Amino acid sequence: MVAVRVPLWLEMSGRRVLVVGGGSVGTRRALWFRQAGAAVRVVGLSFSEELRRQAEEDESLELVELDASDTEALGPHVEWADIVVIATDNPGVNEAVWRLARELRRWVNDATDAERTEIVVPYTLELYGGGLRVAVTTEGRTGVAARHARDKIRECLEGDRGLETLYEAMWRVKPVLKRLIPRAKDRVPIYYRIDEDPEFRDAVERGSLEEALRAAARVIAQEAQRLGIDASPDEVYRLLKSVEKPISPL
């Protein structure tokens, strides 16, 4: 069986990340994981000024002066971690850390060797206040191309008023459908019926959120009544308008 990496969004709050190497790459990875909510520990013989400055202000970012080639001393730190990031410029140290992390069955992000890394750090972009997130990677083949691909995707999506309207309409639809129709097996097909409705699609393409919500309300009311649930289009529309923010994924 050929090994295949699968794309995932991981919740990092409460997770622990060990970064081996306090240089420029280690600094970027440490701050990236810390920003995502992980507790981060960086080990090395030296640390960037940025890391030192951030560590002084953030108790969840810890710097430990340690020779990473001493695997006996490094072992407890690897055991502490959920993810180990390898980011030194010493191939021998990187190899030793990789072997130790693998022996202890820790996930590895090897910033020095794309072929053996288990976790890929992609180029990302966010739209609509973070509501739509996109990740792009070439899995280490060329970061330059991945970065340009991300920027082209941003240029394409930022100007798409129809997509933004679709996003804004459907995040209101989701909590209303969950409220009106408890069973997922009944509820899920309705999302597709809304999306396929000609009036809804026309409103979305024109960027009219108001008309898109009225069309969605009509479809939801029809489907609810078909399931024996009493709901009028006007009632559903009022519910859609009352939704103030998207459902949190957490």
Automatic annotation (TrEMBL):
It is an enzyme of class 1 (oxidoreductase). It holds the Pfam family NAD_binding_7. Keywords: NAD, Oxidoreductase, Porphyrin biosynthesis. Its EC number is 1.3.1.76. InterPro entries: Met8-like, NAD(P)-bd_dom_sf, Sirohaem_synthase_N. It catalyses: precorrin-2 + NAD(+) = sirohydrochlorin + NADH + 2 H(+). GO terms for molecular function: ferrochelatase activity; precorrin-2 dehydrogenase activity. Pathway: Porphyrin-containing compound metabolism; siroheme biosynthesis; sirohydrochlorin from precorrin-2: step 1/1. One of its GO terms (biological process) is siroheme biosynthetic process. PANTHER family: SIROHEME BIOSYNTHESIS PROTEIN MET8. This is precorrin-2 dehydrogenase. It comes from Pyrodictium delaneyi. The lineage of its organism: Archaea, Thermoproteota, Thermoprotei, Desulfurococcales, Pyrodictiaceae.
